[in-house]
Sequence to fold (345 residues):
Amino acid sequence: MKRERGALSRAFSALRLTPFVYLLLIQTGPLQGVNITSQVRLIHGTVGKSALLSVQYSSTSSDKPVVKWQLKRDKPVTVVQSIGTEVIGNLRADYRDRIRLFENGSLLLSDLQLTDEGTYEVEISITDDTFTGEKTINLTVDVPISRPQVLVASTTVLELSEAFTLNCSHENGTKPSYTWLKDGKPLLNDSRMLLSSDQKVLTITRVLMEDDDLYSCVVENPISQGRSLPIKITVYKRSSLYIILSTGGIFLLVTLVTVCACWKPSKKSRKKKKLEKQNSLEYMDQNDDILKPEADTLPRSGEQERKNPMALYVLKDKVSSCGLGASQTPMSPYHVLVLDVYIPF
Fold:
């Protein structure tokens, strides 16, 4: 009896251990899973061209994977979903004819647009969502930089001028960054060299002779680079007078103006001008005396009826040519004809 009871006890113990052994065997068996790898995390694309979002997955299952690509936004946008390479459902209108899937899970986007830029996430699962792998890739999309040029109001400037400005301009290109070159080398750090916040505009203050040189700019973005032709800025030297005045000699100019304003002619000079004026008046009086005997007076009529008489003197070069028959005075070749003109009210 004791032997039989021991055998039964060992049998019951074996039965109680069987489920634990079974679970242990399941856990140590092969597990199904997905591992995704990618060689790049950032891809720079060009508008109108293609970009390959390359990934590689591995799994212990021989089943076809379920692949789902999403564009991460505030609300994720599903780009494509497939079983293997077979697309499930209908593609969005903005992705039609622009998508291609590969066996390894990679996605090819064609005819890139600026709106395609962003972070893409891929999920690859086998059979169900229990075994899923994820990976993210960032895509930038840009327009190439067109050749820039340096714009300037004038290529000549005077030394010690207040400032002159250079503008780096280009027609096309997204996300541009600017670099200025002097004689083909990057500008040195100088307090006189001022750059705008985007470094597109260069302003040189208090121009010196050493600023006479070749200037150019380089514009680049993630996919391209452009360099302008050099432009020659010529600096002319100021005259010595300007330098004196600009460095504190302005008091000389003030002194000259003050002297000129306070200057008075000498007594000798004033006396000489007074004599010249007297001689001029005497000469005019003599001419009047000479002309008076030569004047012929026309007879007056109707003195009682006229008002406001006005005398009109007409100077003739030759009285004989007018047919007046007046005698000529040898003192002067000119004669005066006096006409009294009366204007009634």
Remarks:
- The chain has a mean pLDDT of 75.
- Residues 308 and 343 are 6 Å apart (CA to CA).
- The helical segments are 2-27, 240-262, 267-291.
